[in-house]
From TrEMBL, chain A:
Highest taxon of source: Eukaryota
Name recorded for this polypeptide: NUBP1 factor
UniProt-listed HAMAP family: Mrp_NBP35
Annotated TM spans: none
GO biological process terms held by the UniProt record: iron-sulfur cluster assembly
Function of the molecule: Component of the cytosolic iron-sulfur (Fe/S) protein assembly (CIA) machinery. Required for maturation of extramitochondrial Fe-S proteins. The NUBP1-NUBP2 heterotetramer forms a Fe-S scaffold complex, mediating the de novo assembly of an Fe-S cluster and its transfer to target apoproteins. Implicated in the regulation of centrosome duplication. Negatively regulates cilium formation and structure.
InterPro entries, alphabetized: AAA+_ATPase, Mrp-like_CS, Mrp/NBP35_ATP-bd, P-loop_NTPase, YlxH/NBP35
PROSITE patterns in alphabetical order: MRP
Keywords, alphabetical: 4Fe-4S, ATP-binding, Cytoplasm, Iron, Iron-sulfur, Metal-binding, Nucleotide-binding
Domain annotation AAA+ ATPase: ranges: 14-185
Species of the source: Thryothorus ludovicianus (Carolina wren)
Signal sequence, start to end: none
UniProtKB/TrEMBL annotation, chain B:
SUPFAM superfamilies tied to this protein: P-loop containing nucleoside triphosphate hydrolases (SSF52540)
CDD domains found in the cross-reference section: Mrp_NBP35 (cd02037)
Gene name as annotated: Nubp2
Stated name of the protein: NUBP2 factor
Molecular function terms from GO: 4 iron, 4 sulfur cluster binding; ATP binding; ATP-dependent FeS chaperone activity; metal ion binding
Highest taxon of the lineage: Eukaryota
Species the sequence originates in: Thryothorus ludovicianus (Carolina wren)
InterPro entries, alphabetized: Mrp-like_CS (IPR000808), Mrp/NBP35_ATP-bd (IPR019591), P-loop_NTPase (IPR027417), YlxH/NBP35 (IPR033756)
Biological process terms in GO annotation: iron-sulfur cluster assembly
Keywords: 4Fe-4S, ATP-binding, Iron, Iron-sulfur, Metal-binding, Nucleotide-binding
GO annotation, cellular component aspect: cytosol
TM segment ranges: none
């Protein structure tokens, strides 16, 4: 009956993309936010961004929605809208103060994630993007389990170039294979830094073992692209603005846009294949 | 009453926490342990990041294995002088890329074992490296360590 409830609620969601890592602090939330903004630039698309990082919800701040509250209506919880076609849900909106710690064990976190899927009235959605916390634990198992009620197009896995990150990301790739979650591809953030003054390129996080590209070759996973480290990205996130809109000329913006396009193409193709099968 | 347990010989316990991931908790835990060792202290590191254990690689002991003895598991001793003792789930994986896909209760059980069933011996400092967040690992670690003398927590962040 539970599955039926979730199925009903998620019936109007065309595409679902999970943003995962394994490693913390590599830019999952940043990427999720920009993916949402990028897709929502097309006014004809309805985009939903669901933040299931219960302990460290970054999405409200990154989307400029700090202090917003969730409202209930007859049809369920209303997402908080950034644009008419971009709705957001996060535990961040349920806290009385932004510094309140959510000190919950797994089962309670799972309960809230289920509520987010069952009780939020997303309406008709073209793209549901799910931002996750680092790791391979309760939140990840639960979201895959609950989203089996609809279908998941796949996961985008985010990393940084150094081996300490890749180590955790390989585990995440294995997690995806274990739970039969298709991998759309891997994004390498913080790839290189170009000095705005002298234009010299530095590797702040040297890829001592070949970076994400080499890892993808070894594991036969699609490499979606590299994004350079641009200090404006962090600034835009802190200020709740879309980096893509604030720095349209940045090489990082170009990288993000290319990657977003590849993700869209993957999802559209996936959809066509499914329709063929049906 | 604290019986003679595996942490009885530990003078100070220090937790390294953040909330945020990727800020340098494991890096700091490692450097802190090395600095204390260089200052002549006996140090242990307990890595309770079960999903993303980084300490073994940082100390170049990722290919080591843990052994059992009468008083429990023997930690991995690092370096020529063996002055740093390390326990991490990294040593228990069959393959380094194996994902530990566990829900809370299983994680909690292993953390308790790491605290009560590891033969830490006499240590001046036990540094506990944690994963990001405020969840199962953190609650369980603090609960299991409560009977002992906890020096405190060092919190790590980045500027943004």
């Amino acid at each position: 009956a539970e599955v039926a409830e979730l199925r009903a609620r998620l019936r109007a969601v065309r595409h679902t993309v999970l943003v995962l890592s394994g490693k913390g602090g590599v830019g999952k939330s940043t990427f999720s936010a920009l993916l949402a903004h990028g897709l929502a630039a097309d006014e004809n698309k309805q985009v939903a961004l669901l933040d299931i990082d219960i302990c460290g919800p970054s999405i409200p701040k990154m989307m400029g929605l700090e202090g917003e509250q969730v409202h209930q209506s007859g049809s369920g919880w209303s997402p908080v809208y950034v644009e008419e076609n971009l709705g957001v849900m996060s535990v961040g909106f349920l806290l009385s103060s932004p510094d309140d710690a959510v000190i919950w064990r797994g089962p309670k976190k799972n309960g809230l994630i289920k509520q987010f899927l069952r009780d939020v009235d997303w309406g008709e959605v073209d793209y549901l993007i799910v931002d996750t916390p680092p790791g391979t634990s309760d939140e990840h198992l639960s979201i895959v389990q609950y989203l089996n009620a609809t279908h998941i197009d796949g996961a985008v896995i985010v990393t940084t170039p150094q081996e300490v990150s890749l180590q955790d990301v390989r585990k995440e790739i294995n997690f995806c294979r274990k739970v039969k979650l298709p991998i759309i591809g891997v994004v390498e953030n913080m790839s290189s830094f170009v000095c705005p003054k002298c234009k010299n390129e530095s590797q702040i996080f040297p890829p001592t073992t070949g970076g994400a590209e080499k890892m993808c070759q070894n594991l036969n996973v699609s490499f979606l692209g590299k994004v350079p480290l641009d200090p404006q990205i962090g600034k835009s996130c802190d200020r709740g603005q879309s980096f893509l809109a604030e720095a349209p000329e940045s090489p990082a913006t170009l990288s993000y846009r290319n990657i977003i396009q590849r993700i869209e193409e993957y999802c559209e193709q996936h959809h066509l294949q499914e329709e063929k099968i049906m | 009453l604290a019986e003679r347990t595996s942490l009885a010989g530990v003078q100070h316990i220090l937790l390294v926490l953040s909330g945020k991931g990727g800020v340098g908790k494991s890096t700091l835990s490692t450097e802190l342990a090395l600095a204390l060792r260089n200052a002549g202290k006996k140090v242990g590191i307990l890595d309770v990041d079960l999903c993303g254990p980084s300490i073994p690689r940082m100390l170049r002991v990722q290919d080591s294995a843990v052994h059992q003895c009468d008083s429990g598991w023997v930690p991995v001793f690092v370096g020529q002088d063996k002055a740093i003792a390390l326990m991490s789930i990294g040593f228990l994986l069959e393959r380094p890329d194996d994902a530990v896909v566990w829900r809370g209760p299983k994680k909690n059980a292993l953390i308790k074992q790491f605290i009560t069933d590891v033969a830490w011996g006499d240590l001046d400092f036990l540094i506990v490296d944690t994963p990001p967040g405020t969840s199962d690992e953190h609650i369980s670690t603090v609960e299991a360590l409560r009977p002992y003398q906890m020096l405190g927590a060092v919190l790590v962040t980045t500027p943004q």
